[in-house]
Automatic annotation (TrEMBL):
Highest taxon above the source species: Bacteria
Keyword flag Oxidoreductase: yes
PROSITE patterns, A to Z: TAT
A family per Pfam: MPAB_Lcp_cat
Any one GO molecular-function label of the UniProt entry: oxidoreductase activity
InterPro entries in the record: Lcp-like, MPAB/Lcp_cat_dom, TAT_signal
Keyword Oxidoreductase: yes
Protein name in the entry: Oxygenase MpaB family protein
Keywords: Oxidoreductase
């Protein structure tokens, strides 16, 4: 009976299906559901809401479409046709199935609230503070992702879980696309990569049905918000904590670019925070209840740290500084969930040296106050940021056709 119910949740893809099955299988989740969704939609980009709970909303339009494309066996052909669809203003290739074409034409439209002046300011901010943004949204958020059980397990059991290097490179295609001036304009690529990602997520929801995955369908609207906060709210909090200089126009612009990203990935406007304040409130609701340890997360996190160590000093497996920085970025609880070893020598050094290094870079303190160890960190971060800021576009986002090979 329980098994049938899980399948029902996975297969239905609707809030109704999930609710029906939930009542039978999982009292704990039913309790959580009874808690309801307390974050007020008045604090959202939409300004009001339907009262829907984002835990039980997925992607009403993309999910049935992808299921149908899989049933018709056309995904490899779709991938072939979309491979050279790169620019926001590029017409779609001939030969795409009509329903997919109609979906993309709709999904590629920017919302009426997109504001080009703010987007321009956001990319200037990215150019100015790119190093901190990379450290927080790629390294820090990557480390947090493995401490989000649903995300860790979804990544582990999907095709990308078997080749994390390629998976990270593909994710960086989107990170890279949203940075430049005109990212969302005619010559940019952010719209295309966001729409492709929306298709990939719908494919993952469909494919994970036939994997060792169990539980509600992943990548719900709440799951999306959780990951969004590990990029948006977490990075803003981090920069504030490190005393990075940010004007109020820059902070508004940065938020705007992230709101647009959320919208283009299929998050409903009624769930996207309108301000940093409402964002902090929402983050404090959704993050704690969606984080914790998994064996899959520990395995993936170890691979991620090896990748970072390899960038720091090729051929080296010695990674105390990487471990210490990862612990510093995510805090002790997430670091312990991720199985990151404690580094008695480096943990206290990083904690002291990094904020001072940032304050020196921001012109807030003089050189003599920066401890010598900070320059080792500086060197490491430079290697990471050079890599992530320059090598983002070497691969393409494609719709997976299967899960992790077992
Ligand atoms: C794929 C970004 C949320 C699980 C991708 C890709 C990008 C991306 C760029 C394409 C790269 C690729 O194909 O590997 C994002 C962003 C998110 C988000 C920006 C939120 C703001 C989530 C969440 C989950 C998730 C919440 C799971 C709970 C996956 C999986 C794949 C994927 C499993 C496919 C991996 C494969 O290739 O097999 N995501 N994602 N994502 N994402 Fe997300």
């Amino acid at each position: 009976m329980a098994e049938l119910s899980r399948r029902e949740i996975l297969i239905s893809g609707t809030a109704l299906g999930a609710l029906g099955a939930l009542g039978i299988t999982s009292p704990a989740q039913a309790d959580a559901l009874a808690d309801g969704w307390t974050w007020p939609a008045s604090g959202s980009v939409a300004g009001s809401g339907t009262g829907a709970d984002p835990r039980w909303v997925w992607d009403d339009v993309a999910d049935p479409l992808l299921a149908s494309l899989f049933d018709r066996g056309v995904i490899p052909e779709v991938n072939r046709l979309l491979y050279d669809w790169n620019r926001n203003d590029q017409p779609l290739p001939a030969g795409l199935p009509d329903d997919l074409r109609a979906f993309i034409e709709q999904a590629r439209r920017l919302p009426s609230w997109a504001d080009q002046a703010k987007l321009d300011a956001a990319s200037r901010f990215h150019a100015l503070k790119g190093n901190y943004i990379v450290v927080l949204t790629i390294v820090g958020a990557g480390m947090l992702a493995t401490a989000i059980p649903k995300e860790a397990r979804a990544v582990y059991y999907s095709a990308g879980g078997a080749d994390l290097k390629d998976r990270v490179a593909k994710t960086n295609v989107l990170a890279y696309a949203v940075r430049p001036q005109n990212a969302w304009g005619p010559g940019g690529t952010a719209v295309v990569e966001a729409v492709k990602t929306r298709l990939v997520h719908a494919a993952v929801r469909h494919l994970l049905k036939s994997s060792p995955w169990s539980g509600p369908i992943p990548i719900s609207q709440e799951d999306m918000l959780v990951t969004w906060h590990t990029l948006a709210t977490y990075s803003m909090r981090g920069m504030r904590e490190w005393k990075v200089r940010i004007s109020s126009a820059e902070s508004t612009a940065y938020l705007h670019s992230l709101q647009l990203l959320a919208h283009m990935l299929g998050i409903r406007d009624e769930f996207i925070p309108a301000t940093w304040d409402t964002s902090y409130t929402q983050s404090d609701i959704v993050l704690p209840r969606n984080m914790g340890p998994t064996s899959e997360g520990v395995e993936l996190n170890g691979i991620l740290r090896n990748m970072l160590a390899e960038l720091t000093s090729p051929g080296s497996i010695d990674k105390p500084l990487v471990n210490a920085f990862a612990r510093y970025l995510t805090g002790n609880q997430a670091a312990d969930w991720n199985g990151i070893p404690r580094e008695p020598l480096w943990d206290p050094v990083v904690k002291t040296a990094w904020p001072l290094l940032v304050q020196f870079r921001e012109g807030l303190i003089g050189l003599p106050l920066v401890p010598a160890a900070a320059w080792l960190l500086d060197e490491m971060i430079k290697k990471w940021t050079t890599f992530y800021l320059t090598k983002g576009a070497q691969t393409k986002i494609v719709i997976p056709t299967g899960n992790r090979p077992s």
